[in-house]
Amino acid sequence: MRCFQAFRRIFHDILATMARDRSECVTEWAVYSMSKTTDVSHRSSNLIIGLYSMSVFLYGTGVLVAHAEEPDEAEEQITVPARELFLKMELPFESNASPAYELVMITQFFHQLAAATIVGVLNALIVSLILHVGGQIDIMCRGLVEISSGDDTFDLRTSTIKALICRHQRIIALSADIETLFSYIALMQFLWNTLVICCLGFLIVSSIEDTQGSTMLIKSLFFYVVITLEAFIFCYAGEYLSAKSRMIGDAAYEAKWYNSGPTQSHIVLLLILRSQRKLTITIGKFMDLSLERFTTVRCVFRILFFFVVSYLDCT
Prior knowledge:
Layout: H1 2-23, H2 28-69, H3 100-146, H4 158-206, H5 213-254, H6 262-274, H7 291-314
Helix pairs in contact: 1-4, 2-3, 2-5, 3-4, 3-5, 4-5, 4-7, 5-6, 5-7
């Protein structure tokens, strides 16, 4: 309960910070940047949720196709033949006959659709949060560029210093909250994805030479792609955040801080030094999420998969 309250407080702080960032967008460039970020987040969220929903529809289609291809033995047998469900389970009542079978199928379908939508919303949420942080970094970098005028002078007023430092502090705090919120979620997702991808890969390979392999491919192939995409989303989010965080130091260094006074130069140098610590998302606080990590995880997937296939071939 305390853990849930802590995560709820962190999520509330994230939303409050995002609302404050949007309210402080007064310049034309800031408004354009936030509008662009919002549009990209909206499109990405629709795409992610749509892919997860499509995987459920294709899985259900595979189940129905497999059921349609089964021979009709109702006239030859006294008992009702077993009919495949979306989720294999033992029920305390007879579920093969109509309308119980249809009701169970509809319930399982909407359960799967709701679960897939929740996972899709979770992935869309982290994408939206990371894109928001990236938009704030772009606004800050634009502010550092604009304070360098064309006549080789560096105008750094007290209000400008305060605005830049406050924005940088909010970016760091927001990234830390996102890291705290999604670190252990990413750990559970990667452990679960490792198991699911290995099992799905084995099912896909074993169904190639099967007479009913087409139905298994319909059920599993797109689901395999979506699970792999889920791991890629987390790794790409971490890579994107790290790359964006390095832009702050580069923008501050490229500004003409060396033409300012000693106090102003010292402030900019401290800003550059502080931005050297990259922002990232970790897997359980012990491994950074990046595209390099994604390729490493993919190698682990392949090793585990080929080990399972080789073991089954030997047996």
